[in-house]
Each structure stands twice: as structure tokens, then as C-alpha cells.
Amino acid sequence: MVPRTALLERLSAAPAAPVLCVAAPSGYGKTTLLTQWSGRRTGRVAWVSLDRRDNDPVVLLRYLATALNRVEPIEPGVFRTLAAPGAAAPASLIPRFVAGLSSMTRPVAVVLDNLELLVNQVCLDAVAEVALRLPGGSQLALASRARPSLPDALSGRDGQVVEVGADELAMDDVEARALLERAGVRLSGAELAELLKRTAGWPVGLYLASFAVAGERRRAGPGSGNGNGKAATGQPPSGLLSRLSPPTVAFLTRTAVLDELSGPLCDAVLQTSGSDRVLASLAGSNLLLAEAGHGDRRYRYHELLRGLLLAELERREPELMPELHRRAATWYEAQGLPELAIDHGQAAGDAPRVARLVAALAFEAYAGGRVETARRWFRWFEDQGLVERHPGIAILGAQLEALLGNPTGAERWAGAAERGLGPVPADGALDASMALLRTLLCPDGMAGMRADAAAAWAGLAPDSPWRPTALLMEGISHLLGGQADRADPILARAVDLAGEHGAAPAASAGLSERAVVAMDRQQWGEAGRLADQAVAALRAGRLEGYAMAAFTHAVAARTALHHGDADRARAHLTRAVHLRPLLTSAMPHRSVQTLTEMARTYLALDDVAGARAVLRQADEILQQRPNLGVLPRQVADLKAALDGLGQGTPGASSLTAAELRLLPLLSTHLSLLEIGERLYLSRNTVKTQAISIYRKLGVSSRSEAMQRARELGLLGL
To answer: Domain spanning 427-648: which CATH class is it, in words?
Structure first.
């Protein structure tokens, strides 16, 4: 590693700059420079090396939180939030993470390497927030192939950002000579000058070209001298590979399909043995192979070299690439690393394998908050035009979008599933899964929902974890069809079955529905007991971020208020409010039922404005899906009860779903124009909604609104 003394002195001379930005194409030594810089700092440095799998806000923020926690412990609630289900809007994660940064008390240094791999806008917004919110005296160092977009609050001020580009990273003659001598190549002054001229000081170009020089000398034989530098005009890759034996070249090109290399993995991909010895030898040589772990014999190729090797593989053995990826997928799956198996399965075009793995992992990823990861897996099938060939994946895609409150996406995926299944499905299990999906989307009212629930129950295997949900949906269809007495025993059976299968969502929902039945019968003691059990099941299953959690909290709020605990009722309502943006026509019966329960509690609290707000939201859903059993009449009765009570006093409870969606973004550095771009709204629309939020919160500015929102618990669970 050649010391970059001049650059290090420049970085060290700017200890007050909160951001160091090292931006240059691959091979300029960005990581090397920041490694040397971090080694000079006193105290520990939080280092995160990014890869393309980090294009998920939860994944990125979890890595950041973990890295920061190693430097100085941060508020533990941050990790709990990041591990919550991903039903909430990803943007709402940022203010919660930023709140965790406020628990840090001393300056820290944070390095984000390979920043160019982040393309998800929420992730990039999160990085900007870190730059702005770290404790005073901290520094965030960014390494990227292109200059990242920095917040105006930083880039507009002198001394806030220290930038190092390709021109500064280019090596001078002293650094170049040191690099080449470490590679075992000694050049004359004229040769070095020619090499520097042709490579413009590009460190990796210098390194690779040195192999061309060495190869030319060997071909020229003894007595050739140092030459005149013309060897440097050769192509560096061919010069590099010409030094190596054919088996070594084959090893390099074929293993270039791997992000990380280990002996067992390379053995499996190459169908050979002894790869660990080859890797150790290469790592000890002058090849660009570096350790990926800490002494655990895992390695990576430099990204530039890997690209050259892949191009060589494509030239030599293009037909082998899919098979190499397929072998890697098989090995990763056997090692219990299915997500890496998905990556290689996609590269191999092995759709059946990818479909099987995604079906097993998608909702686990969703439950862990990694919505963008799950969506990325599903998007692959769309991008490849494979959705209708895999109706099981389409069904899961529709379920995911429904849980995220996205009716357009849910309907699109459901339509693809129906086309894929055809008029006479060949797979009874898929037909049952499709029927279960229809119970969520409820396209045909309560009668259709009941028939779909029965079809799902009949078609699902006895040990299927979805059977409790099928029974639950049958019970709900009777309840919303005005047959509470018939619904209650079915719901009770669904709760019992959910307990046997460990199906916490169905258990919590079934208990909540039974509490509604008890309230309608004026059995408030029983209702309170059932509501408490529903909340306990919710928390035990870590389901607080799911849309269905809003219903459980709305029911618990009603029972708490009836028993005289207004504070607990408001706390449950606040939790339901967080999830109101998810209450859409994607799952219309669940959404309207939740909003109805919330309206009843607001009325009991004499909060007329809050009741009107949730009933307006319910009305919007009913306009799209009017055939929802008794729910339209219940909404109409509640609206009639509001007649003559005026509009009420606007407050936090009267925020609309759109305003609740906007609220977390107002706590970030984003301008109103940038927020509009994130939400696909005009700046004027965002401004109008922001002003409405200020009025309802009783404040006059954005900063005051955020302070008030935090006091009310509106920015995080």
C-alpha cells in the first residue's frame, strides 16, 4: 500500500469539515486513501462497505446503526425500530434513525465506501441526513465513483465539504515508482514518464500496465534492457494474463462471477478441489486479490480487475457463465444462504429456483422491515417477463402490495396471477392461494369473500400456516354480513387454530374481531380481555408495523376508553394513526372497519374533527368498493351522529392520510420541491398540505411542527 502522503495531509488539515468526499472512477485508490486516513485518526472509525443489496433503507440504516454502535452505543430503540415490519412508509425510518443519532454525545468518524452502488432515493436521503445530524466535530467520509448529490445545507457553505477527485488521486512519479517496485517492476526514468503519460497517473492502470512491461521484456529476452516504454502501450489485461498459466487464467475468469471467493465455494463452482491453496497463493502474489474478511480466507477481486476478467470469460466461454452462476446458487442454498442463492439464480436465469426461494423468503424479508429487498426480488420476474409463468409469485406479489396499501400494485399482480392460472388451474394449492388472496382484496363483496374463504380452506393442506387465515376470513365475512352470532364461533376456532400453527397475525386479528362482537353485545369486560390478548399477540409476533395492527389498536382504544382509561385509549389511537396511510382500497374491508372503530373512539372522546377525518377516508374507500356488507351503513350512521356537531377543532387527529404520509419527510433536510419529487406531487400540493399540518398542530413553522409531532409521538412508534 503506497502512502498517499500529500492527500492525507490535506484531509488532516480539515478536521472541522463534516464531509470528506472522494470521488473518482474505479482503480484510483479511493478505499486505500480512506483506509490510510482512518488509520491516522484517534478513536475508532465506523466503516460500512456498501453493496447493491444495501439499496433497502432498513438494510442500510441497520448497518449504519450497527457500525455506529461499535464506536459509541446509541439508543437501543433504533435497532428495535429498524427490525420492525416494513409496512410503514420507508421515509418514516429516517427521522426515527436520526432520533437515535441524537443519543450520541461525542464526535465520530464514519466511512461509507462504494456509495455509487446506492440508487434507492430513500437510502441516499438517509446518507444526507447522517451528514447533517452527526454530533458536532464528526466527519462523514464518502467514497464513490461519481460525485454524490449533497444537501444544499452542506454544499452551499465553504469549508463544509472537502473534495478529492481523480486528478488529485492520480499518482505522481514518486508514488508510481513505489507502486511498481512493490509489484516487482523497475523502470527507467523515461519508461516511467511514458507510463505516467499513457495512464495519466491512474493507479490501477499503472499496476496493470506494469505486467505488459514485464511480459514484453520476457519476450524480448536477456539483454533487452529497460526498453523505451513502448510496452506500456499494450493492453494491460492481456499483459496481466500472459504472465499466468492457462489453469490460473481459467481459475481467475471463471471465479470472477463471484462477489466473494472462498475455497469451498470456488471448488463447487469450478467442480474441482484445492481452490483454497490457489486463493492463498494469489492473495500473496501481486494480483489484485484482497481479503474480504478478517483472517477467514474470504477474498474479493478488485472491481476493475473483476470487470476485465468477466469480459475475458465472456470472450472465451460465454456459454459457461450461466452454469457457473447455477453452481454458485446451488452451493449457497446448501450452505443456508438463500438470498445469495437468489442473486446467482437470477444471474443464471434459473427462474424456477428463484421462484421457490423468493416464495420462501419474501414475507420473512417483509416481516424484518426489508420491503425494498422483497420488492426487488419480485421486480426481477416483471423485468424478465416471467410473472404469468409463475402465478404463485404473482399471488405473493399481490399480497405484499396489499399489505403495503398499494391497490394499483395489488390489482396488477393479482391480474397477472389470474392470467397465469388460467380458467382451470392445474395446481389446487395455487387455486387455494388465489382464493385466499381474493378474501384480502374483496372484489366481490361479502358473499364472494365467504365463497373464496371456503375454497381456500378446502384447497390448503391441513398443515398449511394459511388455514387459520382462511377460517378468519370466513368469520369476518359473516360478521360484516350482519351475522355476528354465526361469526363468533368461527372466529374463536380461527384463533385456536392460529395458536396451533403459530400464526400470530391471524390470532391477533381474530381476537380483535371477537372483541368487536363482544362490544356490540355490550359485554365490555369480555371485549377488554379479548382486546388485551390481541395486543399481546401483536407484540409477541412483532407485528406493530403491519396494516392489520391499526385495527387491533383501534379496538383496544375503544375498550380502554369504555373502562375509563383515556390516556391508554389515546396511546392506542396514536399507534393506529401511524398506519392510517396504509388503510386503502387494497384491503377495503379491513381498512373501513379500522377507520370505523377509530371514528367511534374519537366520538367518545368528543373529538369531532378526528372522527370526521377518518370517516372521510372511509368514504373515499367506499366510493371505490361499496359492496362491503354492513360497513357502508355503519359509516353513514356515524356521519349522521356528527350532524349538528360542527366541524370540531382541528388537531393532530384530523390529519389526513396524505398529510400523515408527508409528515416524516418534513423532519428531513429535503426541500418542499424535493419532497414533492419523492411523493410524486407538485411543490404547490406539498406546500398546501404542509400549511394544513401546521394549522392542525397549532404551529407556524416547519421546525415547530416537527417539535410538536415528536411530542405527540407522531414520528415514530
So the answer is: mainly alpha
**What span, in angstroms and rounded, lies between the C-alpha atoms of 125 and 151?**
9
Superfamily per CATH, domain 5-169: P-loop containing nucleotide triphosphate hydrolases (3.40.50.300)
Let me know if 680 is exposed, middle or buried by CB neighbors in 10 A (0-12, 13-18, 19+). exposed
State the cell numbers at 222: 536477456
Class of residue 604 by CB neighbours under 10 A (exposed 0-12, middle 13-18, buried 19+): middle
- The model's pLDDT over 228-272, given as tens digits with 9 standing for 90+, comes to 333 333 344 555 677 778 898 999 999 999 999 999 999 999 999
198 or 212: which leads in pLDDT: 198
Q: Minimal CA–CA distance to 617: which of 585, 573, 643, 662? A: 585
CB 7, CB 169: distance < 8 Å:
yes
Please name the residues in contact with 445: beta carbons below 8 A apart, sequence gap of 6 or more: 627, 628, 629
pTM reported for the whole predicted model: 0.87
β 109-113/45-49 pair status = parallel
Question: Given this model, what pLDDT does residue 234 score?
Answer: 37
Average pLDDT over residues 56-78: 82
For residue 426, what is its C-alpha cell? 392445474
What is the residue extent of each domain of the chain? 5-169, 173-242, 427-648, 657-711
pLDDT value for 83: 58
Backbone torsions φ then ψ of 111, nearest 5 degrees: -115, 130
Contact 254, 268 (CB under 8 A): no
